[in-house]
Amino acid sequence: MADIFIYGTLMHQPLLRVVLGAGFDVVEQVAARLPGWRVEAVPGEVYPMVRADAEAEAHGLLLRGLTDEALARADFYEGLDNYGYLRKPVVVQTEDGPAEATVYVPLSQDGVSAGDWSLAAWAEKWGALSALAAEEVMWWMGRATTVEVGRRYGVICTRAQARLNSREEAPTTLRRRAREGDVRVNALRRPYAGFFAVEELELSHIRFDGGDGGPIQRAAFVSADAATVLPYDPKRDRVMLVEQMRPGPLARGDAQPWVLEPIAGRVDPGESPEECAHREAMEEAGLVLERLIPTGGYYPSPGAKTEYLYGFIGLADLHDNAAGLGGVAGEGEDIRAHIVSFDAAMTLLESGEINVGTTVASLLHLAARRDGLRGQS
Q: What is the CATH number of domain 4-108?
């Protein structure tokens, strides 16, 4: 066994419970101080680090009685062979006097400080998301190295953000209201995990006749949530459509893989769907939206995909020079924007040239709201 002094995100109890697993219930947590070290924020990151400072003192928790399994889990989460950390022997101070421990510290102490780091401020914005991300991280223990998991951590966090979003209560006036235990996942496999992930599930669930429907095998294509926004100028009665080559139609064998869509993008960790819509409008089309009108959220293909879309109409000034080329070059985006009249867009929809579900849904929502929006302009 080895005792660990923790000073950062692991002090968040829901996260620590996920990381330690069953070992969380037996570990003793003691308030402690580490003289000669300072906790500080890392530039561009949400987690802190400790830096040697003879005049400072780091406050944290001493974890006593860690099982070998819990210690191995903590080492895996901290990524000793990925993030350049080591577990260094130290002496911490407790109410009962000095105690020997180890602490995770970066191999390099170089870099500029980003100032003080606050656990309370971090937990308010990132705590729930980090605990959900840790569930996937820890699932990979014994299945992948921390180097491999570290490369995926960004997209793991986007999937965690989607799970966090899914906690929002949704109406159940006609459909069954799920209760705890109505669906049971007995086994989970992830044969692929990259920008997207594939999850194979063995599950059972309550049937409408009251029986137990299972076990059954299902698979889901797991991705981040996304926001779509159809820019509309009510004064000129114009919309903006963006065009780009998409791998979905290409892989299907479609002879025309360039498609017409609303502006869209994934909801990044810590980002709201509204913030995503504004950001993507600027990235894809250099467009500043005046106001967002929500058109609802939905699963485009719930039989196989976890993707959940937040739809918006974005009021904007679509002048003659508003269309052009856009996209983030570093992400391989090549986007062309088109400004067309509302009637022309509906003609494209009726002809089948618009064949993307998000564009169809966005235009139909706009058609239902168009008169009211034009009356306000």
A: 3.10.490.10
